[in-house]
């Protein structure tokens, strides 16, 4: 079973700041489930001048309570690949889980462009694909769980980005990533 | 933010600081010449060692062989960015 959805949202911040915030967004108090993040490859394409990055994220708490007896490892490795075209002011990111794929495979693509109605703002289009093949009549339940969890996470992720963006606007960049122990 | 390899966290933070500055002050302003290669190489080799130890390297290579995202709406690929 596969579920697809698309949604749009915006940030009231410039495209350049939003893409910088994308790199600065961990840690933030809305992402306490993100345990680690690493850049595994990064290069500027000499032909296009696009920046290509691959990051590996480690997140905890991905398996619902009723699923934990089937999937004991309650941590997920997430691959995040991205391309930035600074000249054309476009960024595209794609994230997907590397383990627990049988239970649920979530692939999310986000496109960041300058808002056509306001050059000081940024528009984001998100495409998500959910897929589960676990069987035992649980597939629908898992996809429902995934969808709700995704909506919840997407909201927290936007809140985290907005927090980092507010810090970028008001403070020195080096303070943006200070660790705070607030857990909203 | 920590690295997946606890021993790599210091190297990661040194690299991240360099990269974030370069991204904001050079890359976004059109100067795409890399500046943090030396720090990245130290950090990257530490992370790769950890990935190998935890047998995550194969899982990663397999996923990456599918190619990264494309800037083009239709998902068309230009040469060098990998296949579907």
TrEMBL record, chain A:
Superkingdom as given in the UniProt entry: Eukaryota
All copies of domain PRELI/MSF1, residue ranges: 2-173
A cellular component term, taken from the record's GO annotations: mitochondrial intermembrane space
Pfam families, sorted: PRELI
PANTHER family membership: MSF1/PX19 RELATED
Identification of the protein by name: PRELI-like family-domain-containing protein
The organism of origin for this protein: Piptocephalis cylindrospora
UniProt lineage: Eukaryota, Fungi, Fungi incertae sedis, Zoopagomycota, Zoopagomycotina
UniProtKB/TrEMBL annotation, chain B:
Name this polypeptide is given: Mitochondrial distribution/morphology family 35/apoptosis
Statement: the UniProt record of this protein carries the keyword Transcription: no
GO MF annotations, alphabetized: phosphatidic acid transfer activity
Organism field: Piptocephalis cylindrospora
GO biological process: phospholipid translocation
Residue ranges of coiled coil: none
Family according to the record: Belongs to the TRIAP1/MDM35 family.
Classification via Pfam families: UPF0203 (PF05254)
Keywords: Disulfide bond
Biased amino acid composition, Basic and acidic residues: 73-84
Cellular component annotations (GO), alphabetically ordered: cytosol; mitochondrial intermembrane space; nucleus
Segments for region (Disordered): 57-84
InterPro entries from the UniProt entry: MDM35_apoptosis
């Amino acid at each position: 079973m596969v579920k697809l959805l698309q949604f749009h949202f915006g940030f009231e911040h410039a495209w350049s700041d939003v893409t910088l915030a994308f790199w600065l967004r961990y840690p933030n108090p809305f992402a306490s489930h993100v345990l680690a993040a690493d850049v595994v490859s990064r290069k500027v394409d000499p032909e296009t001048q696009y920046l290509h990055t691959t990051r590996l994220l480690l997140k905890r708490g991905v398996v619902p309570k009723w699923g934990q007896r089937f999937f004991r490892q309650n941590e997920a490795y997430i691959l995040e690949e991205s391309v930035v075209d600074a000249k054309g002011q476009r960024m595209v990111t794609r994230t997907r889980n590397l383990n627990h794929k049988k239970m649920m495979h979530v692939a999310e693509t986000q496109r960041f462009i300058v808002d056509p109605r306001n050059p000081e703002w940024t528009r984001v289009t998100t495409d998500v694909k959910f897929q589960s093949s676990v069987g035992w009549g649980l597939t629908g339940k898992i996809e429902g769980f995934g969808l709700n969890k995704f909506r919840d996470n997407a909201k927290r992720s936007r809140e985290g980005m907005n927090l980092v963006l507010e810090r970028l606007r008001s403070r020195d960049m080096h303070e943006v990533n200070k660790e705070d122990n607030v857990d909203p | 933010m920590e690295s997946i390899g606890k021993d790599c966290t210091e190297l990661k933070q040194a690299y991240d600081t360099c990269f974030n500055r370069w991204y904001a002050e050079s890359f976004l302003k059109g100067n795409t010449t890399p500046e943090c290669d030396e720090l990245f190489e130290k950090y990257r080799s530490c992370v790769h060692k950890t990935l190998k130890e935890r047998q995550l390297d194969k899982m990663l290579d397999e996923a990456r062989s599918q190619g990264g995202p494309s800037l083009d709406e239709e998902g068309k690929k230009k040469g060098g960015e990998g296949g579907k």
